[in-house]
Amino acid sequence: MKELRIEKNDAGLRVDRYLAKAVPLLPASLAQKYIRIKRIKRNNARVQRDDRLAEGDVLQLYINDEFFDTPRADNAYLTVASPKLSVVYEDENILLVDKRPGLAVHPHDGAEYGKTLIDHIQAYLYAKGEWKPRQSTFVPALCNRIDRNTGGIVIAAKNAEALRILNQKVKDRELDKRYLAIVEGAMKPPAGTLTGQIFKDAAKNRVYVTEKPQPGSKTAVTNYQTLQVKGGLSLVECELITGRTHQIRAQFAHAGHPLLGDGKYGKLNKGCDRRYQALYSYKLTFRFTTDAGPLAYLDGQTFQVKDVDFVREYFQ
Q1: pTM for the complete prediction?
Q2: What phi and psi values does residue 222 have, to the nearest 5 degrees?
Q3: Can you say how many angstroms the Cα of residue 134 is from the centroid of all Cα atoms in its chain?
Q4: Of 96, 247, 271, 311, which has the highest C-beta tally within 10 A?
């Protein structure tokens, strides 16, 4: 239990607004709950969230010590009172989550603390009691990343051994990731391989595709197969042979078939009110060619998201 004494400058504030300032890691919804069940009191008596505080009042807070920490990237999960995750698969070692477009995976992608995928995953595991940060130095972490405006399956490791193994498997390309995309026009041929050199311009946060190597460029290879063609659009499945930044978006645009709704590498289509490019990492298969230790049971297993909105919208 901690006590907070109200000073002159905070007199007149509502209880909930004072708590938001004094204990920024405590989510507003959780603060309201704690007030309701009397884990937050004023002068050892029941208090309401809209009560006004007076100088000299003392708040008694019966809440976990971690809520009193200074807000940082490593404790932002505390601000997530109700984690929102679409779980594709979960066991004692890993968690597969269907990330929605528009959600950043990490705070350094420009998102605020408490508003990223990893924050929600850590909050989820913390609430379940599977992760106890005060008892372990391990922090649940992501094994792969997806662009902020792309949706799809993201892998999180629940323990250090799983993280080590999966990071190596990702590096060794022992995971088969398939994407669905809608591109403009019809691909010719309908199935094939896009190959080129990708050069990244970090200042502009975009890449450029060239036919010949240049300083700093890397080879990019994408296999594709057309699944449907309708109304001047094609639904294609993509397999990343290499994993370069914005690879699918840039390569299809370079081939003359930009992704629907991709304002960076194509154009924002008239009559299309999509906020994000039509690209989704919809299927994941573990294809281990080397020893996976305690994760060997995952070898050969395929996981797929239940629904991709743009497929439903444009191709039924």
Answers
A1: 0.82
A2: -130, 125
A3: 24
A4: 247
